[in-house]
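TA notes, week 10

Several of you asked for a full example with nothing omitted. So below is the full record: structure tokens for the whole chain, then the designed sequence directly under it. When grading your own attempts, check the secondary structure regions first.
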């Protein structure tokens, strides 16, 4: 028995086949033009290597597994400068400062009032954030995997999942949300082994504005006790 195929049906079948073929070609082309995880890491590294200083507003959102559904938020300003120098100024809900001067990490809360000075903590912090000042290599510390950005609500950029190479790392993985235009990090999420999440969103980013070195120095106000942390 022969099945007759009318010209309209044949034309429709050819059109569907052509559309499917074109879709396959476009998908293949898209895959070829999309950067790989390794390429994205290199571009992120290049961006921060070219930054002498950095300033941005941040929102920190912390989610503890023990308190499901409860989020803690902090708002402030972050500054970095070549040499690993950094300054975090929390303005809300409580005023506090984290300042790394190249040798010591200072933590100061005016409401307490009390200042903490640590060397070992400073060195760990410096190593963890070294790539932001172009000093550390992401690939030396992490294995990077590119994940579907749409699933993470970030279709406008790339999402990388970084897993520490060292087994004794205090966290399970880090998520980096990367801007497609210049490859700066607009959000980072640190997930520890208990699945607690520490998220930082950055906005109003400004680079290479000649931030004064004095911003990364700290002298405790008169009468404020200083607690010394462990040495390196």
């Amino acid at each position: 028995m022969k099945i007759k195929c009318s010209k309209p049906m044949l034309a429709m079948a050819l059109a569907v086949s052509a559309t499917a073929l074109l879709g396959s070609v476009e998908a293949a082309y898209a895959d070829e033009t999309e950067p790989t995880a390794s390429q994205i890491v290199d571009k992120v590294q290049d961006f921060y290597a070219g930054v002498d200083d950095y300033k941005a507003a941040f929102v920190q959102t912390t989610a503890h597994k023990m308190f499901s559904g409860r989020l803690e938020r902090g708002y402030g300003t972050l500054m970095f400068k070549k040499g690993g120098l950094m300054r975090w100024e929390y303005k809300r809900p409580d005023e506090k400062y984290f300042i790394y001067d190249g040798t010591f990490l200072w933590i100061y809360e005016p409401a307490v009032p009390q200042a903490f000075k640590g060397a070992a903590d400073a060195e760990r912090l410096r190593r963890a954030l070294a790539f932001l000042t172009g000093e550390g290599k992401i690939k030396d510390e992490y294995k990077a995997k590119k994940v579907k950005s749409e699933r993470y609500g970030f279709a406008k950029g790339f999402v990388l999942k970084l897993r520490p190479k060292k087994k004794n790392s205090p966290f399970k993985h880090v998520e980096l949300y990367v801007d497609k235009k210049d490859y700066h990090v607009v959000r980072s999420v640190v997930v520890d082994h208990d699945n607690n999440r520490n998220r930082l969103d950055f906005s109003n980013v400004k680079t290479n504005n000649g931030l004064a070195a004095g911003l990364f120095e700290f002298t405790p106000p008169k009468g404020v006790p200083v607690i010394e942390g462990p040495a390196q």
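The chain has four helices and twelve strands. Use that as a sanity check on your answer.
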